[in-house]
Each structure stands twice: as C-alpha cells, then as structure tokens.
Design goal:
It contains four helices and five strands. The protein is of the alpha/beta class and 115 residues long. A five-stranded parallel sheet has the order 4-3-2-1-5, sandwiched between helices. α1 links the parallel β1 and β2. α1 runs parallel beside α2. The longest helix is centred in the middle third of the chain and has 13 residues. The radius of gyration is 13 Å and the shape is globular.
Length: 115
C-alpha cells in the first residue's frame, strides 16, 4: 500500500458525512501509519465539537483518530462559536489560525481536498 500526505478541509456542517466517508474510504486503500492524513476544521464546522450540534459524527471522528487521522481545529473558530478548548476530545489538535495551517500543509506538499 502507498502512503499519502493530505489535508482535508471542512468548514460547513453539511459536509461532515461526505468528509468522513471520503476519509474512511481512503484509510481502506493507503498505509495509514506511514501516511499524513489531517482534517482541518474551521468556521461553523467546529460546532461538531460543541456536544449538541452533530453528536453522531463525533463517534466516527474518534474512530478515525484511533486509526491515525489527525483532526486539527481552528482556535479562532472555536472562540467565535464560544466552544471551550477544554471540552474537546483529547485527540484534537488546536491550531491558532486554520487557513495558516492549510497554507503550511500545502507548502509541505500535502494534497488539498475540500469535499
């Protein structure tokens, strides 16, 4: 199996099912441990972690994180939606500015996917 370097970008709640399905499908055909698969979450999509908006997705997110998929969340978006960092699952990486994370990942050769 091949390894990949990819960042998925999600900023809309309506896209969670598609993003999670895309990632799940990818994990079936690549070598996940040797890959760099990141999901950058910003804007309204961070509300998946508010414990109320989309609780069904958090279980799938946790399963993917256990496989080695990194979930990064924009601090600015959390602040804007008044979601406390302390309430997030421990596997979540907080990044100061989501768009900067996207730029840095792409500069390091990551493929950019925005379903």
């Amino acid at each position: 199996m091949q390894s990949v370097n990819v960042v998925f970008h999600i900023d809309e709640n309506e896209k969670w099912p598609l993003v999670l399905a895309n990632i799940r499908n990818l994990t079936h055909v690549v070598d996940v441990p040797s890959s760099n698969i990141e999901v950058l979450v910003n804007s309204k999509a961070v509300s998946v972690f508010d414990g109320v908006t989309l609780p069904a997705h958090t279980e799938k997110i946790a399963e993917l994180a256990l496989l080695g998929v990194q979930f990064s969340v924009c601090r600015n978006s959390l602040n804007g939606l008044q979601i406390q960092v302390e309430s997030l699952p421990t596997f979540i990486k907080i990044v100061p500015v989501g768009v900067l994370e996207l730029i840095e990942k792409q500069n390091k050769g990551a493929a950019y996917i925005k379903p």
